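Milestone M4 deliverable, item 7.
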Amino acid sequence: MASPLAPLSMSQTKDDLLKHLNLPPETYTRMAKEADLVYRWLTEDKRHLRDKTSRRKPPYDWSDIVEKSKDEAITRIAESGDEYTSYYWKLGEQSTGDCPNWVARWFLYHKFRYRDGRNRNTVKSEDR
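Output delivered:
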């Protein structure tokens, strides 16, 4: 069974995450795909938006999503692991109430960062 690790901040890079988790790049890619499925679920339904009457279209910013929906998405990601990724999702489990899983939160946050265009210049070097 995996023992939870101290969380990284969401601003840490992919390389920082790979080193911290001792995560193989191939497994990172699998985890990013698992997170992407939940990202799409989260952004396809306006009930997850802070301003449900907004006429804005995706991609949404991280701050546009209500915290309860972020937590639900994080839990979905962490529970979606396969035989290769489950171990790494478990490393992000937290006993504190502020976030269900910091690894899943990191992946979800970086999906928003990538999609909203802020990291377009660094995407090639970080392979998101």
